[in-house]
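[Q] Does anyone have a clean structure-token version of this?
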Amino acid sequence: MTTGNTPVSKSFAMKRIKLVFVGEVKAPHYAQASRHYLDALERACKVEHVLCRDGRENKDPAMRCRKEGQALLAALGPKDWVIGLDEGGKTWNSKTLAARLNRLFEDPGRAPCFVVGGPFGFSPEITARFDERLSLGPYTLPHELARVVLLEQLFRSTCILSGHPYHHE
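[A] Here you go.
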């Protein structure tokens, strides 16, 4: 099976996705949706899920971003291909994300690592570490909802790549 010009892997059991998020999801509806899609994604591939402490003790948004940026940087490894969720990033449809994810799965030296910041975004230190920027669309989303959308799209990507009927056309 292929997606465009990209050969598709049938088994993702040995494939790994890393997720690095700032703070716990507090709203119960977002927490439930996040857990649902994270569980589904974990059935499709290996998922390393890292939660970094938010910088809420800092009242100054710039200081908060800097503190969160330091925590995010500490969570990243040298083999992580860092894709930061950023409103200025590229927008991909579901099939494009699946194809991109498949290419990263096939690279033995790198692993896809998706980073979602806190409510005030990212510090320049963490954005400098991004290998790519991904936008979920032209609108601004609460960071907790952005997590849900990202998790659903990553699960959808694994379904596209494996031929699972979750994504139907």
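[Q] Thanks! Anything notable?
[A] The chain is about 40% helix and 25% strand.
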